[in-house]
Specification:
With 134 residues, the protein is an alpha+beta fold. The chain is built from 3 helices and 3 strands; from the N terminus they run H-E-E-E-H-H. It is globular. The model is unreliable at 21-45 (pLDDT under 50).
Length: 134
C-alpha cells in the first residue's frame, strides 16, 4: 500500500490561496478609477472595466430612438431599451439622452452604488426628454 503525505500538498494549497487573495487586493488598491461620469470607460482594470454602447432602437410605432448596453468587463450587465423610471415604454429620443443616462449608470456601477437605479429627478437634471403620459 502506498501512503501519500498530504500535509505538504495542503500547505501549498493554503499558501497559494493566501497569496492569490493578497495579490488581488493589492492590484485593486493600486488601480485608480476615473470618478467622473463623463468617460465611456470608467476603470483601468480589465475585469472591472465598466463601459457602455449606445444602439439604435426601432420602436413599434415606426419612430426611431436609442437605448444602451452597459458592460462590466466583457459581460453585458444591463440592456436598456427604454427610458428607466418613467411610465410606459418610452425610448430615448436622442443619442445624447441615452448616453447621459448610460454614463450615470456606469458611474453608479463603478462606484458600487447598488442597485444602480435612475430617478425621474435625475433624468430631469440630465435634461433627458420624457413625454408626459396623462
Amino acid at each position: 500500500m502506498i501512503r501519500i503525505n498530504t500535509s505538504p500538498i495542503l500547505s501549498c494549497v493554503i499558501l497559494l490561496l493566501i497569496f492569490s487573495c493578497n495579490s488581488s487586493t493589492e492590484s485593486n488598491s493600486k488601480s485608480e478609477t476615473n470618478s467622473t461620469p463623463d468617460s465611456v470607460i470608467v476603470s483601468s482594470t480589465d475585469e472591472s472595466k465598466v463601459s457602455f454602447k449606445i444602439f439604435m432602437n426601432d420602436s413599434t410605432d415606426k419612430s426611431k430612438g436609442y437605448g444602451y448596453d452597459i458592460f462590466v468587463g466583457v459581460q453585458r450587465y444591463i440592456h436598456q431599451q427604454n427610458i428607466p423610471a418613467v411610465n410606459g415604454n418610452q425610448i430615448f429620443k436622442t443619442e445624447a439622452d441615452a448616453q447621459a443616462v448610460a454614463q450615470l449608470m456606469s458611474y453608479k456601477i463603478q462606484n458600487k452604488i447598488m442597485p444602480p437605479t435612475v430617478t425621474v429627478r435625475e433624468l430631469d437634471s440630465l435634461g433627458v426628454t420624457v413625454n408626459k403620459i396623462q
